[in-house]
Design goal:
mainly alpha, 4 helices
């Protein structure tokens, strides 16, 4: 998904798979690389340790019906 977003934005992004990073080290790495404040980055990184599966119990008219593709939605939002 990140690669598709980069292509839509006409950006060339490099992704590195770095195994064995702990959550604490990941928090520091993200704040160093992105410059995001730790108050925002730390909770986001910590939440990645928990599995999350979306369930479609409730649909929102015009949003959840999937009438437009991801690419079109990304272009529109950007």
């Amino acid at each position: 998904m990140m690669q598709r977003t980069a292509e839509i934005m006409d950006k060339k992004r490099r992704f590195f798979n770095v195994p064995l990073l702990t959550i604490k080290l990941s928090r520091l790495w993200v704040t160093l690389v992105t410059g995001a404040p730790k108050e925002m980055a730390y909770p986001l990184i910590e939440s990645l340790a928990h599995p999350m599966v979306a369930q479609r119990k409730h649909k929102v008219q015009g949003i959840s019906d999937g009438k437009i593709s991801f690419d079109k939605a990304a272009r529109t939002s950007l």
